[in-house]
Write a structure and sequence with these properties.
Blueprint lengths: L3 E2 L3 E2 L7 E2 L5 E6 L2 E6 L5 E6 L9 E4 L24 E5 L4 E5 L6 E4 L8 E4 L5 E5 L5 E6 L5 E5 L8 E3 L6 E5 L6 E5 L6 E6 L7 E4 L5 E5 L6 E7 L4 E7 L6 E6 L5 E6 L3 E6 L5 E7 L3 E2 L5 E7 L5 E6 L3 E2 L16 E6 L5 E6 L5 E6 L4 E7 L4 E6 L6 E6 L13 E6 L6 E4 L10 E5 L17 H4 L11 E5 L3 E6 L9
Length: about 500
Amino acid sequence: MDPQTSPVFKSSFSQGSHPSPDGSLIASVQGSRLLLQDVDTYEIKRTIQLSAELSNICFLKWSPHGASLPADTGESESNPPSTPRMRFLVADEQVVEVYDAYDEEWKAVVTPGFGGVKNVDFGGSEDEVLILSEFGLKVTIWSLKDSSHVDIQYPKFGSKGFGYRPGTSHFALLTRPVAHDLLDIYSPQSYTPIKSVELPTIDAQGLKWSPDGRWIAIWDSPSAAYRVLLYTANGHMFRTHEQPCVGLGLRTVEWSPGGEYLVLGGYDGSVIFLNTFLQFNKVIEMRHTLEMKQPATDVWSEELSVHGDRHYTLITPPVNLPTVESPASDPNPKIGVSVISFSADGTLVVTKDERMSTSVWIWSLESLTPLAILVQLSQVKAIQWHPSRGDLLAVVCGADPNNASTSNIPSVYLWSQQWDYPRAIKVSKDLLAANLWFRWIDHKATVQSGPVESQSTEAEQSENHADALPNGERFIVGDKERFQFLRLDDPTVPDV
């Protein structure tokens, strides 16, 4: 399967270019300019000259997709009330600038002042920006409608310690003003305090709303074994799930897409499923074993030919999986389940155990067994399900340390339940394998958006870019300085 590829485009943002939530545009940074590029034609639709105050860009983010203009907003041909409003922010450690993808006249600048910007994102809607200050002194929510803001003191974490309730945008935040952890819940938009609960935790590690907005899961320190607190949406304790273990306990927590499962990944390699319909009782426990003996599990091993081509070979169990041992003195040992990720339809889940950092485990929730294991030649850096196709998975690895001569030939690895075997997709040799990143473009989410007028582009970016890629599964890959588009011809049909 040879994908269709675009030319390589320049980018100066180390974290890469970002597709819009509707899959129509790519936002990238080139020096002091931000570019919006059409996914189909590669044509640059808009160039934004960033202000001189943005000296070292650290953040580039799109607003959540799907929010429509309020009913009382003035209507026009270019901005009808049914048009989803897409905004994006660009920020460094001192300044946040927000732009509208469709309204070239609209711009907002947020200068947080003392404390700067440690982390920034959109708040409960595209009309809010949430800023966490340096040293965790406060979290500030700025309104882009009237420039008002609300300060909340003593947030415990940057990204994993807060969340918005799906559907209503109630704000939940972990704080630690003194010696105890607190769960604070605030009303949407006004951020009026609703509830503050002292938590019976040793050292709370994070919180996550369930996808249906009914539950808040808060997990404790791994020194407390497996310990998760379940609260209702209004802040009342429902129950605590506790499970003893030898050594460190809980490392990773994830909800299934429908909210029926809360899944716990441990430092001991266990993956535990709690069922929300059974009062969060454990229904299954899976383990990452160092030896795979089940004949029904496909174990695919990456191999490298003498010509530098990468492919997979099916290995018949039993198979001993390669492991990485951390020194006893390592304060952050490479053990435990670091990744739990569900497919879009919730029928498959992929995991990664750091003891086997080159292996990707794909589990079937129908059979409750490993469906496949991908064994890579180098460490797995990122794993991403396609956002709307439930059977398509992408894997990105670092440079192969055992093949120095080919370590700069980057590849992206794709697995589908419908294929006879996984694929290794070569990308441009201009990209550096050690810094490779990957992002799906979800064209199934594309909607009729407000018009973005095209404009003349640089010669190096306009030549030979007019032909649009036909519909197919698309993605972008890149490193710290470049990126390119790729499209699979027909990812549901294996090679003949």
